[in-house]
Amino acid sequence: MAVVPEVVFVLGGPGAGKGTQCEKIVETFGYTHLSAGDLLRAERSRKGSEFGTLIEKCIRDGSIVPVEITLALLKKAMEETMAKDPSKNLFLIDGFPRNKDNLEGWQRHMGGKAHVKFVLFFDCSNEVCIDRCMERGKSSGRSDDNRESLIKRIETYLTSTKPIIDSYSVEGKVQRVDAAGAVAEVFAEVKKVFEKK
Ligand code: UP5
Ligand code: MG
User: Which of 38, 107, 126, 144 shows the greatest Cβ crowding within 10 Å of its Cβ?
Assistant: First the structure.
């Protein structure tokens, strides 16, 4: 029987530290990190992509790309990883699912094909999120690390993504970590979650 991908969804506000902590989880627990945002940014920059303009518009506006586009990229990345090494079936899916369209798309296409172990939720205030992204914006070159985009990103997080986290919470699937501390402090909490799971 084909090996089923085991997935941890990693969610939290913009700049909560999802990418930073995922890198550390990869080093310690052998997961493969798939950032939906990174995959979309790569697709936006790919020569000949028919979705480049749409993706860039969504990223700047802090709105969410239609699930068919994001899911195709995630699916391809998972398949490629497992084709190279079938034992690599543990995935951190970072920054997805962000809204109802994302969640329903996942359930429609991946329900039964992948197992969602739990949702890792990095929780911190909007102020911390904004400060971190503004600081990063000095050198990141990201078109959404500016105050105008950040206000929209936070709004989308609160109205579209937080309800997804809440719905997983009702199912008892959310592992919440306080993300306001230093990187090492946050990782100490993350480690406890993965050791327990
Ligand atoms: N930093 C990290 N941890 C720190 C700590 N504990 N203390 C102090 N500083 C800390 O960290 C952000 C910055 O903070 C870095 O400079 C870091 O050094 C520092 P990072 O780890 O990058 O945080 P992360 O949560 O990954 O922030 P990111 O900006 O990537 O989050 P977003 O969720 O906003 O961005 P993402 O790339 O996931 O999505 C971007 C856009 O793509 C979305 O707005 C949307 O338009 C689109 N998108 C979709 O449409 N669909 C998707 O499924 C995914 C994305
Ligand atoms: Mg990120």
Answer: 144
26 and 32 Cβ atoms separated by less than 8 Å: yes
* Residues flanking ion ligand 2, Cβ below 5 Å: 18-19
93: amino acid identity, one letter = I
Go through 91-108 and write b for each residue having 16 or more CB atoms within 10 A of its CB, e for each that does not: bbbbbbbbbebbbebbee
Q: For a pocket test of ligand 1, which of 132, 148, 164 has the largest count of ligand atoms closer than 8 A to its C-beta? A: 132
Query: The complex's ipTM?
Result: 0.99
Binding site membership of 183 for ligand 1 (Cβ less than 6 Å) = yes
Q: pLDDT (tens digit, 9 = 90+) per residue, 22-59?
A: 999 999 999 999 999 999 999 999 999 999 999 999 99
For residue 142, the ligand 1 atom closest to its alpha carbon is: 29
